[in-house]
Design brief:
Layout: E1 25-28, E2 45-48, H1 50-55, H2 57-72, H3 83-91, H4 93-101, E3 103-105, E4 111-113, H5 117-136, E5 146-151, H6 157-164, H7 178-185, E6 195-198, E7 202-207, E8 212-218, E9 222-228
Antiparallel strand pairs: 1-2, 3-4, 5-9, 6-7, 7-8, 8-9
Length: 229
């Protein structure tokens, strides 16, 4: 078997990773707004329709800015912000306003942030579907059985241990998929293993034990876990 060639069923090709429609573009997973320049080489790319490719951009910008604002405790960008987010918030004050609307403080001055849950879920599902399509050559456009999105600092020790532990099926991944070829050839793979796309910015893992699952860490802050039966 040629380790450079994928052998997935042709029926799994020519399908948008996000909606199952006919693709006419390609999309990076993760989105570049979640990464810093210079970008890593050979970023994962999946087939996508133009509607999906362009349709997630606003939500992706929002979540990238949201995480940065929460981590720094302010919606006013300063020199500590990632340059890309600093520029985005200055160019689009409406995003800062949306994030500010979700900011609350208790009587002790502790800040609480209420995100736009729909936008956050939309981006996390998009990323999870993209990773499943890229690594396993399958489309999971159906609703997942389980989705959890939590800030790492808010998780208990037990929750952190469960999240960072990766269950093993003791089986090979989807036959002929990118994950299958990588595992078979001894390459570093995201299959049941944390794959760092960019240090401190983005990492993910996928697997097929007890269903198809994806775990993602965004900006070293947001932990995401999605499972399909």
């Amino acid at each position: 078997m040629d380790p450079k060639k994928l052998f997935i069923d042709d029926r799994m090709k020519g399908i948008c990773a996000y909606c199952g429609g006919t693709p006419n573009s390609r999309d990076h997973v993760p989105s570049k707004v979640l990464l810093d320049e210079p970008y890593p080489k050979n970023l994962p790319v999946v087939e996508s329709c133009t509607s999906c490719n362009q349709g997630f951009s606003a939500a992706e910008e929002y979540i990238a800015c949201l995480i940065e604002c929460v981590m720094h405790g302010t919606t006013i960008p300063n020199e500590k912000f990632r340059p890309k987010i600093f520029a985005t918030l200055n160019a689009r004050p409406s995003i800062a306003s949306r994030i500010e609307n979700g900011k609350q403080a208790d009587r002790h001055g502790n800040l609480f942030w209420q995100p736009e849950e729909g936008s956050v879920k939309e981006v996390v599902l998009k990323l999870a579907r993209g990773h499943i399509a890229y690594e396993l050559g399958i489309q999971r456009i159906d609703e997942p059985e389980f989705i959890d999105i939590s800030p790492l600092p808010n998780m208990t020790k037990e929750q952190l241990e469960i999240f960072f532990s990766l269950s093993s099926s003791h089986l090979y991944p989807e036959i002929g998929s990118r994950a299958f070829v990588s595992v078979l050839s001894g390459k570093v793979s995201a299959f049941e293993n944390w794959l760092v796309v960019q240090n401190g910015r983005y990492q993910y893992a996928i697997g097929q034990s007890d269903g198809d699952w994806v775990k993602i860490i965004i900006n070293g802050y947001l932990a995401c876990h999605v499972i399909w039966d």
